[in-house]
Amino acid sequence: MSLDAFLALLVYALVTSITPGPNNLMLLASGVNFGIARTVPHMLGISMGFLVLLLAVGLGLGAVLTAFPVLHIGLKIAGGAYLLYLAWKIAMSRSLAGKGETKARPMRFIDAAAFQWVNPKAWVMAITAMAVYANAEHPFLSVLLISIAFTIVNLPSVSIWAGFGTALRGFLSDPVRLKWFNIAMGVLLAATLWPMLK
Length: 198
Known about the structure:
Elements: H1 3-18, H2 22-34, H3 36-67, H4 69-92, H5 109-115, H6 120-133, H7 139-167, H8 175-191, H9 194-197
């Protein structure tokens, strides 16, 4: 992969990682409701889960889904159902979690990593990146470079959303504002399913 191609890949990775989608909306809500420190496992889970997804797609899983469309449809249905469940949980949250509170909890590392496998935006990003930037002459090396590019930009990108949510905690400490913020986040998260339904 040439330097120009790698720089173009980095731009693609940055734009797709930092724009709104299920992960970033959940991180914004988590930053508001739990603060940055308790959201770190969620951020790391997204980055590592997406890295594993990228490697799997690049090493052949994308071709399997193309060959067996029923698997792709099943993945869409499972992802959509889980996304709606998460949207509901966010929309119904009514109080900021304090340090000693254990009833409500942010998404765990393993949950966030596993979510990438049913996240429609993550699949589109991974399949598009591999289709556009993978090199047939050096397939393993190009898959590795694509994965490195996303790893470089993904964690800083998702951290911005969690940090922005944390910055809003003071403003949203008012229960009425928090209620409407969480409802709006739940609705927006559910709305991210729209492109998948087309």
